[in-house]
Amino acid sequence: MVCYPINNTCMVKISRAACGPFMLFLILMIAGCANNVVNPTLADAAMAAQKPKQQIVMVNKSRAAKGQYVANQKTLRRMPGQSQAEYDKKRLWYNQQWLAKQQAEERQRLLRLKYLRRYEKKLLQAQAQKRQQRQQAAASSTSPNKYQQRQAQIEARQQQSNWQQDGRWQQQIQPKRASRVSPERLRRNLAHQLSAAAIARTYQKVRYDGRYIPIAYPMGDVPANIGVCTDTLIRSYRRLGIDLQRLVHEDIARNFYAYPNLPKWGLSSPDPNIDHRRVHNLKVFFSRNGQRLPITNNPADYRPGDIVTWHLGGDQEHIGLVVNRRSPADPRRYMIVHNIAHGDRMEDVLFKLPITGHYRYLPDRSRWLASR
Q1: Quick check: is 158 in a domain?
Q2: How confident is the model over 290-309, as pLDDT tens digits?
Q3: Neighbours of 234 (CB within 10 A)
Q4: Is 313 left (phi over 0), alpha (psi -120 to 50) or beta?
Q5: HSE of 51 in the Cβ direction (CA atoms, 13 Å)?
Q6: Residues 70, 142 within the same domain
Q7: Element (H, E) at 27
Q8: Residue 92 lies in a domain
Q9: Which of 108, 120, 167, 259 has its CA 20 to 30 A from that of 91?
Q10: Whole-structure pTM value
Q11: What angle do CA 208, 324, 277 make, to 5 degrees?
Q12: Strand order in 316-326's β-sheet?
């Protein structure tokens, strides 16, 4: 830029290189002058436009007073990659936990597999040992195997059953063994067996019914759901293999007039359908073939297996069996199994009614006519 004085006026010659900065300076000067003479209304509008910024600053200052601004500033100052680092850290931790769980499950599986293999090994050893023992037993002629022993037991049992069915077992009694057991002990065992058979009758549901019914002979019986007092006694003896139907009929056939024949019966010959089911006939049979014991008021005289008859009035009599169960009221007295209009029951009725007979019938094996 070169300055020339012309007519007391400074002429300025500006080079082309300095033209740009000079024009910028000139524009700024003009703008400054314009600001000095700006309209007051425009100045107020500019100040009003700046007020929201001042309010925002005041709000920010109030939040800083409450302690929230500092927290916001810390969040803003966080590094750009900090969230990603925390995510990677958590992912690594979860991955380690998953790997540890997988390793623990693998160790448990291997441990179970180890125990399973050990158990299979012991099982195979035991099977091999048993197989070897069976082979040795089969090879030895003096020691039969379990199969042969089982077959021998089955054959012996079948043979014994056949003997009991056709009566041949009576011929197989060893005299030496029979001589060891006294007759009194045999009768006592039979009395307890008879008592148990009578008690078993109390578990059967029987309706009292004494009508005349034709039955088979021998081992005949009325339907199992009906019966009277004599049927309780007959079925108890039959459980031991003693058929009172056949025994009573044979004795009546040999001695018909030794037995009572009431007018209401109107019999002219023995009747195997009903003779053994009458108390009067059983009393005569037990007196002729068993023991007739004295009638007392002492409960010690009545033992399990004994037979007792009572008077019901008129020509009606009742019969029952003494069993090996003590009375709750008096431990010296035994209970009675009988059927008096309510089915087979076990009750304490020994001295409840007038006693008309006391018998004991425990025959030996030669009198047993049927198998159990």
Answers
A1: yes
A2: 999 999 999 999 999 999 99
A3: 23
A4: left
A5: 7
A6: no
A7: helix 19-36
A8: no
A9: 108
A10: 0.52
A11: 30
A12: 291-292, 355-360, 307-313, 316-326, 334-339, 344-347
